[in-house]
Specification:
205 residues; two-stranded antiparallel ribbon; 3-stranded antiparallel beta sheet; mainly alpha; globular; 47% helix
Length: 205
């Protein structure tokens, strides 16, 4: 995608209705290369606490991995053009207070058409599992650009894992729902702004 390319999809499953919707709505802006890091967490209260903390710190992981400054043979002036152009869906994602709160939010967004299905939840981080949104067993960090250096990828993964372990040992001081003086809506705005700043300037942000 760095180099000159056609602005058309070459789809392998031309009869897939969901794929047709994605192509019609987003074009090739969703054609990006990334790495998703998953951590297994089978305690739901701990899982959603981890999602809240990592949501606050997601911009840091993008800053460490940003590697997409070129698009279609041109310099974009963004360190992560991928995250700048990728259409976060739904546009506003709240801080989930618990599993029930997450299920209701997912069901409401599918019902009102903001999401076509459970897969159509594209954000920096999300819960994942064998039967989303009802059966969950892992945290999925989705904000990182593609990391080809295996040592760097292991380092980023280890940092993420250590932050989550530290959270579990210090829930009262590290879970934003408990420790932050800001409201969840205020935290959401700050986190979204930080992600854009990290995409523009990575560690210089």
């Amino acid at each position: 995608l760095c180099f000159k390319h056609d602005n058309q999809f070459q789809r392998s499953d031309k009869n897939n209705v969901y794929h047709q919707f994605i192509q019609d709505k987003y074009g090739i802006s969703i054609a990006t290369s990334s790495v998703h890091i998953n951590l297994g967490i089978d305690d739901l209260d701990k899982l959603f606490a981890a999602i809240r903390l990592v949501r606050c710190e997601a911009s840091m992981y993008l800053s460490l991995s940003a590697s997409s400054p070129f698009l279609n043979n041109k310099l974009t002036n963004n360190h992560s053009q991928r995250w700048i152009q990728f259409p976060k869906t739904p546009y506003k994602v709240p801080f989930f207070k618990n599993h029930h709160n997450y299920i209701k939010w997912i069901e409401d967004n599918i019902h009102n058409g903001n999401m076509q299905n459970i897969r159509h939840f594209w954000s920096s981080i999300r819960p994942n599992g064998p039967q989303r949104p009802y059966s969950l067993d892992r945290l999925e960090l989705r904000i990182c650009d593609y990391v080809s250096d295996i040592d760097l990828l292991l380092g980023i993964t280890a940092l993420l894992e250590l932050r989550v372990i530290h959270l579990f040992e210090n829930m009262q001081t590290l879970d934003p729902l408990i420790s932050s003086e800001l409201s969840c809506d205020q935290l959401t705005i700050i986190c979204d702004q930080n992600e854009i700043k990290a995409a523009q300037n990575s560690l210089d942000a």
